[in-house]
Design goal:
Largest sheet: 7 strands, mixed
CATH architecture of the largest domain: 3-Layer(aba) Sandwich
Order of helices and strands: EHHEHEHEEHEEEHHHHEEHEEEH
Number of domains: 2
Shape: globular
Strand order of the largest sheet: 2-8-7-6-5-3-4
């Protein structure tokens, strides 16, 4: 597992005013969801459903697929390890920079690993058993059009494409490729139920794929991997989806405005993103110095992105917050640049 990630509040020696380090939806958990979970706490007295069947049914209905196309997991992170296990000792390609758990899951399962720059399109994907794609990609927010995924699955039928859509709902104009799982047997889509609703502590994700692929992966699912409260949360979210949604338009608008504003600063370069999060390259100082300054002097937390493979200590990742916090970050960065 990558040591040094977002949302490291427990490691800070002071109370943080605004956390720009975690790329979940900004704001608070919907009060209605909190009240529901508090009312359902007694469910922890019993074992959860072994395969989360009720939640599988609701997810299938949400995406208009069959129950046989779904596996529910203990966060999207568990899903990566299950998928990698089902391709034990195979050859995986990981474009970088990307989420470190793709590599970790592959290493645990003895994959042969190759890497490429995620800005470079290859012509020989057929050399690999698996290709791991963050879409939108963490940490840079890069997206791959659905037409391109369709093309890849069709052209390289013997290569499995694993598409991580954890941030699908936090990206302007994003089009999911879930529907393509009904067309191609070599496509696996992994989704999260916690990023959009700001409940990462619940740990809830799922896998969508062709029936035969799901049957293969299911061999490695342990009973009760998803706890009873998480199942309750997932079912309630899907039932009350429209009522629980955060104001995504405002979240994304704030991100685009912050990117534009920060791009006007001469000592950094913003990697443009359609997501609520984006990368920044520092042209002065380094990521650890800036992170420590912002914690110590401003009670702000950013993501030091230096431990993403392919990046160095000139990179940070920022997830947009509400407008007033974004303005505070902007002014704080200007102050730091003058030290």
């Amino acid at each position: 597992m990558m040591y040094g990630h977002g949302n490291e509040l427990a490691l800070c020696d002071r109370k943080i005013i605004a956390d720009f380090s975690t790329n979940i939806a900004s704001g608070v958990v919907a009060p209605k969801l909190v009240r529901f979970l508090m009312q359902e706490l007694s469910c922890i007295k019993n074992y959860p459903e072994p395969e989360a069947r009720s939640l599988i049914k609701n997810i299938a209905n949400h995406h208009n697929v069959s129950d046989e196309n779904i596996i529910v997991s203990n966060g999207s992170n568990e899903a990566f390890y299950l998928v990698a296990r089902s391709f034990y000792r195979k050859h995986s390609l990981i474009p970088i920079p990307s989420f470190a758990e793709y590599e970790d899951a592959c290493n645990v399962n003895k994959h042969i690993l190759s890497f490429c720059d995620n800005n470079t399109e290859l012509n020989d994907y057929g050399r690999f058993d698996m290709v791991w794609i963050g879409n939108p990609n963490n940490p840079d927010g890069k997206t791959l059009p659905i037409d391109r995924i369709d093309e890849l699955c069709k052209k390289f039928a013997n290569t499995c494409f694993v598409v991580d859509e954890a941030y699908a709902d936090l990206c302007v104009g994003f089009e999911s490729c879930v529907g393509l799982t009904q067309k191609y047997s070599n496509l696996i889509v992994i989704r999260s139920m916690t990023k959009l609703f700001s409940i990462p502590g619940i740990r809830l994700g799922y896998i969508i794929a062709n029936k035969s692929m799901i049957q293969n992966i299911k061999q490695y699912v342990i009973p009760w991997s998803v706890n009873a409260l998480a199942i309750k949360a997932g079912n309630y979210i899907l039932k009350e989806y429209a009522n629980l949604l955060p104001d995504v338009n405002t979240i994304l608008d704030n991100s685009l405005k912050l990117q534009t504003k920060l791009n006007g600063l001469s000592f950094l370069e913003v990697t443009q993103s359609k997501c609520n999060f984006f990368l920044i390259k520092l042209l002065k100082g380094n990521s650890l110095e800036l992170k420590e300054f912002l914690i110590r002097e401003k009670a702000l937390l950013i993501r030091d992105a230096s431990n993403f493979k392919g990046l160095d200590n000139s990179w940070i990742r920022v997830a947009s917050q509400k407008a007033s916090y974004n303005n505070f970050l902007y002014e704080s960065l200007k102050e730091w640049s003058q030290l």
